[in-house]
Write a structure and sequence with these properties.
The chain is built from 4 helices and no strands. With 190 residues, the protein is mainly α.
């Protein structure tokens, strides 16, 4: 009887350890897939941005050949500078109400310095752009970037609304309400 219990306990322990290892492998595989998907999305967005900016600025092939390496260089440096600006807020666990005035002042001065570094970077690359493009196209570049980001945010917002709408639609159908319309956001409130 004791031998049977021992075998059973050992078998259960073995099964639990095996299933935990399998779950860990599945989690690693999912994480790799998410990273790959994220990289593919970023690549597609970058291609879309290049096409959009090139078309909006009406870049000639010669301008594009000179402009895009400089712009990509700026984007890489801007991403690094932006990470620096927000690092203080990501690593802090304290709430603003709980830190001392001296600590708050120190954090804000560091943030201002990092924001100034970002502004200096923008000014540096503005001058580089002017060596490649006429001032009117450089001016338009800044507007086009804003419009691209705005359009991206709107598409993301619509995607989020559609996802939520689908979830609500599924919930309505599960309650026996197939004739109910899914929620479509603000337009349904009119």
């Amino acid at each position: 009887m004791k031998t049977t219990k021992t075998i059973l306990v050992s078998l259960l322990a073995f099964l639990m350890i095996g299933s935990m290892a399998l779950m860990a492998q599945t989690d690693e595989k999912e994480e790799k897939e998410k990273k790959r998907d994220r990289a593919e999305i970023e690549k597609a967005m970058k291609a879309r941005k290049i096409a959009y900016i090139s078309a909006e600025l009406e870049l000639t092939p010669e301008e594009a050949e000179k402009f895009w390496p400089v712009y990509n260089q700026f984007e890489a440096k801007r991403m690094e500078a932006t990470k620096d600006v927000f690092k203080h807020f990501e690593k802090r666990d304290e709430k603003p109400e709980t830190i001392s005035d001296a600590e708050a002042d120190k954090i804000m001065k560091e943030r201002f310095n990092e924001e100034q570094a970002l502004l200096d970077l923008k000014i540096e690359y503005h001058e580089k752009y002017l060596n490649i493009l006429p001032a009117s196209k450089v001016f338009k570049l800044y507007e086009v970037e804003i419009n691209f980001r705005r359009g991206l945010m709107e598409r993301m917002g619509r995607g989020y609304q559609e996802k939520r709408s689908g979830e609500r639609h599924d919930a309505n159908n599960s309650k026996g309400g197939p004739d109910k319309k899914p929620y479509r956001g603000r337009q349904d409130c009119r």
